Fold this sequence. Notes:
The complex is a heterodimer of chains A (148) and B (215).
Chain A: H1 28-56, E1 64-69, H2 73-78, E2 89-92, E3 97-102, E4 108-110, E5 113-115, E6 120-124, E7 129-134, E8 142-147
Parallel strand pairs in A: 1-3, 2-8
Antiparallel strand pairs in A: 3-6, 4-5, 7-8
Chain B: H1 2-22, H2 30-34, E1 54-57, E2 65-68, E3 76-82, H3 89-102, H4 106-109, E4 112-118, H5 126-134, E5 141-143, H6 148-158, E6 162-166, E7 172-176, E8 180-183, E9 189-193, H7 199-214
Parallel strand pairs in B: 3-4, 4-5
Antiparallel strand pairs in B: 1-2, 3-8, 6-7, 8-9
Helix pairs in contact in B: 3-7
Amino acid sequence: MTGEPTQPPATTPVAPAPTAAGAPPARPDRRRRQWLALGTSVVFFVLAAAFLVVVLSAGDGPSEYRVVVPAGTGSRLDAGETVVLVDSDVRLSVDDTFVVVNQDDRTHEVGPFTVRPGETLRHTFTTPGRYEGACTLHPSGAVVITVT
Amino acid sequence: MVRRVLLAILAAALAVGVAACGADGTSGGDEAATGTQALRGIVRPEPLRVGDVTLPEVTTDPAGTPFSFRARPGELLVAYFGYTGCPDVCPTTLADLKVAREQLDPADAARVDLAMVTVDPERDTPERFGPYLSSFADRYHAIRTTDLDALAAAEAAFTASSTRTTSADGRVEIGHSGTTYVVDDEGVVLVEWSFGTPPEDMANDLRVLLKRERT
């Protein structure tokens, strides 16, 4: 026997042990990508919900200007009382609604609106402009509604 | 499992995002989407009914023929209370109405009639009243009564009003409400326009109502 070098014995790769179902297990990096995508979606959902809350609670949506004419208002006017139930100069925005609730027993003029006894009149202004008329509910006798 | 959860969250986020975009108030497409159009004038929950109001018309032959506030079938009648000497409200309103009719298709414009009731019958003689209206419309009815009680009753039916005062120097001052009324063939007031209503809004309402009258 002489000192000739010998090659180490060749080794063959050993395949991982199969799972019980017979399929190999998922690689760790694929699972990490799935959880990353899930987390991103959750964050996106939370942001979208927060945006919706902000939009719905924003204070610049259409508003309502409400005038209630109590029962007996006409009698008070007949007695010479000064009655002020509405501003003489009303400033509204497009899509704002003007509401007059007449609880009195007589018709009242409120600027461009004439409201019968017991009637509730609602009007949404969809066009900018200046709307005016006589008024029984303000000492000036007139109301101007400016819509911008 | 993770994939199903992922898809569910993405679907929910998409739904929230769409809802947020729709909550900004710019829903002007509702009219086109539903096929119905909104009236821009004043609509009462219980409309005025004026079909039984009858006053003499001075633009007929013979003058004084009773005129009832109902449109002809398939048409609309625009009614207004004013006077020829009005410096601002009346000429502005009648001019706006003229512009509104010009914005309609000719076939629709031909289905819009006009009746003006004078609240100053003493000075608005037939010789003065008819020519005044002819400058604003080619089709009109000049309504005039010297019976002030009948005039007041007609105004009340429309919730219109007028006042007449004489100043110390003898000048007569007339005050009146400035609302315009659109009446159908049953005498129902379908919409009212306050003073200041733009012609475009009038035209819009006339188109909407004429379409309803056609069906």
